[in-house]
Amino acid sequence: MAGSTAFSEDLGKLILRLTVGGLLLFHGISKLLHGVSWMAGALAAFHLPAFISYGVYVGEVVAPLLIIIGVYTRLAGIVVSFDLFMAILLVSHSRMFVVGPSGGWGLELEAFYLLTGVCIFLLGAGNYSLGGAKGKWN
Fold first, then answer.
1. Where are the domains of the chain?
2. 66 pLDDT more than 60
């Protein structure tokens, strides 16, 4: 029975990693295709330099790829969470107390990625990863 529990946990971690990493990567690819110059205004409103916007490539391209393959997974989970925290702070904060037309919270998507990044940090990659369950930061 203990073996099936470990199998289930590792499979669950793999599904979580593929789901979060894969879905967030779509956002990163969009930014690769269309750029991040639109963030300059939001950063300026907080007196931050525009070059910080390039950090989104780390949070939405590099970190999701690391999560998918299971290397430096815990670190990548924290990077994703920080990326989404900054997205909420800089861009999406106006939807904090909004309920969307379908009944969902205005920050539903951002909260999903932020909190699943924390879950990935806490759980690690599991055995089904290139880093292996015992690898550093996995």
1. 2-123
2. yes
